[in-house]
Write a structure and sequence with these properties.
The structure is a homodimer of 145-residue chains. Chain A is mostly helical and 145 residues long. Chain A has seven helices and three strands. Chain A binds a DNA duplex (30 and 30 nucleotides) through helix 1, helix 2, helix 4 and strand 3.
DNA sequence: CTCCATTTTATCGAATGCGATTAAATCGTG
DNA sequence: CACGATTTAATCGCATTCGATAAAATGGAG
């Protein structure tokens, strides 16, 4: 329990907000060359890792619901990156599959992670530790929610 | 330089994105009781710390531009939290000032930080270190951008 | 003083992101 | 089989967020 109001810079939530902002600003121009937005890139990373997922499963890993994913996926489908098709085994669900174009982007965009790592200008071990601390924090925050 | 594609969970940017999301989800119900959104809360924190700032100065601390701040501040003005007035010394700038209602929220919302700290379920030193690591990362990312 | 560059905020369109609700398909129990 | 409960996406409205641009005020050079 603290006895005074926190300043903006003292708030953990603001440091997260700012770091996320800064990361987004770094990604934006790199992704723009592929006509990708940042959430669209995350969808691709998820599909490169495992293709043919249901909308709901993508939502689970990305922590997004269909109200966000459906229009996002429709834009990606319009851009020719993915296909959306009802699951024949269960017509309630929609399966998202990479197109050739979507798959091809994996190689072309591979350099992006390295650009980010270079920008972060820290050794891999340090960044990995920060990442793991963030995962643990996220876990605790979700449990509390 | 890595020789393989990273999974979603390995990406530092995604750990930031997820932690920020999780934090937002924790804040949302707490802020909803005051009819506040998260960015609106950040504006209030900034003004509680120093009232009477120009739109551009708020943008500097929050890393937001007028295209985001202007509509956000108009909604806050409509909600009776702040006042917006042209600076008589320089009519280009707009000074943002807390109303009595906006000032009063500081006391009422004081518990929110503590709810978040409780949810994070870690000691203050650990969270402070994570926060400082994030600040340093943000700094490096901004320099690279 | 005039005119152009600069500063500062505002506007517009597009893309998330979320709460609430709806619609369609499936499941389960009688 | 029938029918209500559940699951899964989709839709709607609102609030950010950003890139691009505009508009108004100020400043500075001549």
């Amino acid at each position: 329990m603290l006895d005074r109001a926190l300043t903006l810079d003292e708030l953990l939530c603001f440091s997260l907000y700012s770091a996320n902002h800064a990361m987004g600003r770094l990604y934006r121009p790199l992704l723009a060359r592929f006509d990708l937005t940042y959430p669209q890139y995350l969808v691709l990373v998820a599909l490169w890792q495992q293709d043919g997922r249901k909308v709901g499963d993508l939502g689970t890993v990305l922590q997004l619901e269909s109200n966000t994913l459906t229009p996002l996926l429709k834009r990606m489908e319009a851009a020719g990156l993915i296909r959306r098709a009802r699951n024949p085994q269960d017509e309630r669900s929609v399966i998202v599959t990479l197109t050739d174009k979507g798959r091809a982007l994996e190689g072309e965009a591979a350099e992006i992670s390295n650009c980010i790592l270079a920008a972060a200008d820290a050794d891999l071990a340090e960044l990995a530790e920060l990442r793991d601390r963030l995962h643990r924090l996220t876990e605790r925050l979700r449990e509390a929610g």
